[in-house]
Write a structure and sequence with these properties.
- The protein has a domain of 148 residues: Beta Barrel (Lipocalin).
- The strands form two sheets. The chain has an eight-stranded antiparallel barrel. A two-stranded antiparallel ribbon has the order 11-12.
- The longest helix has 15 residues.
- Helix content is 21%, strand content 29%.
- The chain is elongated and about 145 Å long.
- It has 299 residues and is an alpha+beta fold.
- It comes from Loxostege sticticalis.
- Keywords: Disulfide bond, Signal.
- Pfam families: Lipocalin.
- Belongs to the calycin superfamily. Lipocalin family.
- InterPro entries: Calycin, Invtbrt_color, Lipocalin_CS, Lipocln_cytosolic_FA-bd_dom.
Length: 299
């Protein structure tokens, strides 16, 4: 009798809904594509779980590594303190090929913990219904989660997830809603003791690329090397006496009108004289030429 009591306590401590009998035979989703299932999921509703008591902003992220492994990270935020707790592990597909059934092995816990999950149905883009059941003799415990791609999903998405629960005849009476409000507000960085060290490291990295002035990075071009001609002698700075030099005499201001009048006087218009006329002597008439010729004596 005491063994049965211990099994019941263990089932209750594991935080699901304990029941007598064997686990129901729920078939997981067929033709399940794990690659499409990768990425972040937000927990909207779930069965009551002791491990998630007093928590909010629960998210799960599935990541594929280049080596072909699939890692899972559960992030849980404490409702009172705001501290985040991470549960990390890796996934191993179990069951028949193409079934949405896998085993999660958590390695970040003090004791290694393996848990089997089944994806009852999902459209990969909006919702997913996850279910789990573990039996200890005549006692078994069930867990169920409604996951969505959006932190605050629309009603239509939730109706599709509820339809999956109704198809498998899973009661919704034991579901509790996960608080996903105010999850994007980050804590004050000044309260973090590592904030100053990280800030100094960032400033050192920024200085390697430029100069920081008033928390702004300004890139500086590399200095240009000036070539010095050996033949040119460097300029020697002239020594100046400490006695102030007399100021130059003030010159009278030149009024623009006076300057214009003087320039107008200097540049007097030149009067062009008419070109002299050249008189061409007329040719003497033939009669006058004949008169001037001497008369020849008669023979």
């Amino acid at each position: 009798m005491w063994r049965l009591s211990v099994l019941c306590l263990l089932a209750t401590a594991s935080a699901q809904i304990p029941s007598l009998g064997w686990c129901p035979d729920f078939q997981p989703m067929q033709n399940f594509n794990m690659n499409r299932f990768l990425g972040p999921w937000y927990e909207v509703e779930r069965y009551f779980t002791v491990s998630e008591l007093g928590t909010r902003c629960v998210t799960t992220n599935y990541i594929s590594t280049p080596e072909g492994r699939i890692l899972v990270t559960n992030e849980i935020t404490n409702y009172l303190t705001g501290l985040k707790r991470l549960m990390e592990g890796h996934i191993q597909m179990v069951g028949r090929e193409g079934e949405g059934r896998f085993m999660v092995k958590y390695s970040s816990l003090p004791l290694p913990y393996d848990y089997e999950y089944s994806i009852l149905d999902t459209d990969y883009d909006n919702y997913a219904v996850m279910w789990s059941c573990s039996g200890l003799g005549p006692v078994h415990t069930q867990s169920a989660w409604l996951l969505t791609r959006e932190r605050l999903p629309p009603l239509m998405t939730m109706q599709k997830a509820y339809a999956v629960l109704d198809r498998f005849k899973i009661s919704r009476a034991f579901f509790v809603k996960t608080n996903q409000a105010d999850c994007t507000i980050l804590p004050d960085p000044i309260a973090d003791p590592n904030y100053e060290e990280e800030k100094k490291l960032d400033r050192v990295q920024e200085k390697s690329a430029g100069v920081i002035v008033d928390d702004e990075v300004k890139k500086v071009d590399p200095p240009v090397e000036k070539r010095v001609d050996p033949e040119v002698k460097p300029e020697v700075p002239q020594e100046r006496s400490a006695v102030a030099e007399p100021a130059d005499e003030a010159k009278p201001l030149q009024v623009p009108e006076l300057i214009l009048s003087e320039s107008e006087k200097k540049e007097e218009p030149k009067i062009e004289e008419p070109a002299p006329k050249i008189e061409i002597p007329e040719k003497p008439a033939e009669t006058e030429i004949k008169e001037k010729e001497p008369e020849q004596p008669a023979q």
